[in-house]
Amino acid sequence: MRGIAEVVGLALLVAACASGGSPPPSRPIPPPVETRTQFRCDNGETVLVRFFPQQGIAVLERGGQNVELQQQRTGSGFLYSNGQTSIRGQGNDMTMTVGNMAPTQCRAVGGGQPVPPPGGGGDPVLEGTFFYRCENGDRIEVRFFPNQGVATLQRGGRSHEMTQQPTSRGFIFKGADYQIQGRDQNLQLIPTNEAPIACVKER
Q1: How confident is the model over 27-68, as pLDDT tens digits?
Q2: For domain 128-201, which CATH number applies: 2.40.70.10, 3.10.180.10, 2.40.128.200, 3.90.1150.10?
Q3: What's the whole-model pTM score?
Q4: SS3 label, residue 169
């Protein structure tokens, strides 16, 4: 009788496992949104900063070492620090401070990289400087700073700053004199009280 009970118990255990007794496989966790920007500094160094805005951290890659920094409150631009090392900046400019060393001025180098707009979701907004050829013959320059939510338009020798506007697709930046909106390679330049002008990004 004992042998039969053991066999029956083993059979029930096997049946339970076959019917889903084991835990289901876990779903893969999506990787965090990351923005990489390379900076060349006045002291001759070239450093890489990896921004993780959703996690509120940045990783400074310098001299073969990775230094994790926490986002700090600031009135404008960005500020990350761990008490010993800090980076502060706005747009393409950054100041790096390490220990008791004098602050070093750095500037972003390289081309633009698609990064998600602040808060996640929507289409990626280009980061960097891009040139567009418009249907009226104009050639304009647009510099995107998605981390700061601004863009600057260079047209006719003048610079115009615009603020990013919420949108579910593409991008919209609006200023006092101009609005730009677009997606992928296409951009519409909308002067205040004038008809929109279609433009295409140069390759």
Answers
A1: 555 555 678 888 999 999 999 998 887 788 899 999 889 999
A2: 2.40.128.200
A3: 0.44
A4: coil
